[in-house]
Write a structure and sequence with these properties.
Number of helices of chain A: 16
Structural class of chain A: alpha/beta
Largest sheet of chain A: 8 strands, parallel
Radius of gyration of chain A: 21 Å
Distance between the termini of chain A: 44 Å
Shape of chain A: globular
CATH architecture of chain A: Alpha-Beta Barrel
Largest interface: A-B, 51 and 51 residues
Oligomer: homodimer
GO molecular function (chains A, B): carboxy-lyase activity; hydrolase activity
Protein name (chains A, B): Amidohydrolase
Helix content of chain A: 40-55%
Organism (chains A, B): Actinomadura rudentiformis
CATH superfamily of chain A: Metal-dependent hydrolases
CATH topology of chain A: TIM Barrel
Pfam families (chains A, B): Amidohydro_2
Keywords (chains A, B): Hydrolase, Lyase
């Protein structure tokens, strides 16, 4: 039987001008003027390959050639009025918020249509900003009604940002709404880092630090009591590695036990009041509420799968990014999973994503029978990397977009 | 033979009004007015125990009762004009800088006298701020001439601070001067974290994150080329744990190799220009230039000593802090080092600190013969913790002082 493969981390978006029909018409004139002066700085969004982002037929064809039958769709291209960023929304100044929020709404509406072009094969992720929680809640309700089963992409909050940190109770209506509607909350690598100066050392240091800034959301939500108040909420940490998780969970559990120790140390005094509201240990919230969009997993990550939780991990191809596994996903899967038992492989490659994002595995099965890699193929170790395969490294073009 | 023990992490400072004679007289009136209205918020600086910070005889006596013969002295009390912080200097607004810098100079001058009261037993650490590099260099030269062999305490720079990040070349005169004079550069845990809101969740999250913000200095200096340009510089990471080091060095080496790979990935493009200036791998700079003031090491840290480098690690009691090992340092040493070979134990408890901070081990030997724990005592495992012993946890009172 062929393996059914879902990519839990893919990217899509419209070509800039194609967002226009999805943009509120009161903004068309402003958009036209803005778009005329806009120069897209991203090579991969100008090249012929860029059509992968929005050409539904091309996308399905290339996906299937790569052995994949369905995907979760994060953003990728430039939304209206976004100077740089789209992958994760920024926290704009009040004067900028209104038109950027409209730009994201246009993307979300385009995404709903794009998903509808391949029913059951695409789980689109809706974007929100954190500046106005009522707006965010309204957009989440719209996205749910519009069938964006990918849930919501929540941007990170860098230290010193103009909006409160993610652990703040002001965001509770967002978590409550997502829990109520069963919308997963996604947090994608590249987000939450402070601004960056354009000099060589800042750029190098940024690469070293950027994943940590995305990881922060995990303990912000845990100690913020978000999973305590919303036991059904599903939170997904995507494209920020997975090998950090066991160590961080141990650290968080350590602090939790110190905070709850009831002794008079300064540590308990500091952390006690927050921890006393939590009925579970951090690792227990993780095991109940959290998932990992582990994207192009390295062979060094699979030995940690039981510590992280086999039922929490979701592979992704990162299509159409250069550093993703396309068009060598079959080889990438062999490389990382050849020695993983079939049942666990199926959970990481399809079952978990189906559970989190609502894919119907029975409906996808005929596609897998047609295009999926065979179990025998995936059980073969990869002896050499395909020529032309890029390294599965962090998506830096994406990060740049996140500023 | 008794073990010679040096604490590479202790704290001292004057009672507030005793800084007055060390303060430039033009500021005396301003100081008197400020001091009158100042209320010290720290319980341990008001209690009878506070005299440990400045009473030379009491300090020596308690140190010796604890089996220790010499110590490196970081700050602890409130320097003139400091609203909260003293342990690590802040980055004040321009209007505040002048008098805070004068406050630190008063502390440094007091510290030189305090060290002179016990020659060879105290290595005082001089404080600087980063707002004015010329001032900092002048103070380092003064500190060297005044015999402050503890070197310099460099404050961390939180994201978004008003001064450039630690990797900035504007600080090169500081590193150059320290290298030239053989002054160690110390970076103490609690520094470099962004501000903190006074609510329970912020406090808990702060504890989880604060050490990472101190660790950042390591890769900022490495990728900033500081150790490349100043091969003789000695950099000490104090009271921020040691168990994170092997993992971080692996990560930094990984990025370095990616940055140097010469390929066209975005990662190489980002990090390449900085890494191409570095002739060594991050772990090689660490092994040449860096030391760890590991303070109250836990038994779980000694198995990592070869990965970190036995010749890099320095134990400390954190006297007079509550969470330090006093008055149970003998027990703490047995607990952590009973199964560490004598030669390695001696390096971590004395030899490395002597090399970094210029202690004369021969001159200290008679004191160790008189008060040090015997080798036999230290070789005995600790079967139960002394009643009243506090847990060796991170120094949070200290952190509060660092804001």
């Amino acid at each position: 039987m062929n393996q059914l493969v879902i990519s839990a981390d893919s990217h899509a978006g419209a070509d800039l001008l194609d967002y226009r029909p999805y943009l509120e018409s009161r903004l068309h004139d402003e958009f036209d003027a803005w778009a005329k002066g806009y120069v897209n700085p991203f090579a991969d969004l100008q090249a012929p390959e860029a059509t992968r982002n929005w050409d539904s037929d091309r996308r399905l064809r290339e996906l299937e050639e790569d052995g994949i039958v369905a995907e979760v769709l994060f953003p990728n291209t430039i939304a209206p009025f976004f100077p740089m960023a789209n992958l994760t929304a920024p926290h704009p100044a009040p004067g900028e918020y209104e038109r950027l929020a409209a730009g994201l709404r246009a993307h979300n509406r385009w995404m709903a249509d794009f998903c509808a072009q391949a029913p059951g094969r695409r789980a689109g992720v809706a974007q929100i900003m954190l500046n106005d929680v009522d707006d965010a809640v309204e957009e989440i309700r719209w996205a749910h009604a519009a069938g964006l089963t990918g849930g919501v992409l929540v941007p990170g909050v860098p230290p010193g940002a103009s909006v409160p940190p993610l652990h703040s109770e002001v965001y509770d209506p967002i978590w409550r709404t997502c829990a109520e509607l069963g919308m997963p909350v996604n947090h994608h690598g590249g987000t939450g880092a402070p601004g960056l100066e354009p000099n060589p050392v800042s750029l190098a240091v940024f690469i070293v630090e950027v994943s940590w800034y995305a990881h922060r959301a995990l303990w912000h939500l845990i100690f913020g009591g978000v999973f305590e108040r919303h036991p059904d909420l599903r939170f997904v940490l995507t494209e920020q590695g997975s090998d950090w998780i066991p160590g961080v969970l141990k650290t968080l559990d350590y602090y939790y036990s110190r905070f709850r120790s009831g002794d008079a140390t300064a540590e308990a005094k500091f952390g006690g009041p927050a921890a006393s509201r939590l009925s579970l240990k951090p690792s227990e919230y993780f095991a109940r509420n959290c998932y990992v969009g582990a994207t192009f997993m390295k062979p060094s990550e699979t030995p940690l799968r039981h510590e992280i939780g086999v039922e929490r991990l979701m592979w992704g191809s990162d299509f159409p990014h250069d550093e993703g596994t396309f068009p060598y996903s079959r080889e990438a899967l062999r490389r990382t999973f050849h020695d993983v038992p079939a049942e666990e492989k199926t959970a990481i490659l399809a079952g978990n994503a189906a559970r989190v994002y609502g894919f119907d595995l029975d409906a996808l099965r005929p596609h897998a029978d047609r295009v999926g890699p065979s179990e025998e193929e995936l059980a073969q170790p990869l002896t050499e990397l395909p020529e032309g395969a890029t390294s599965p490294v962090f998506n830096l073009e994406t990060i740049i977009r996140a500023w």
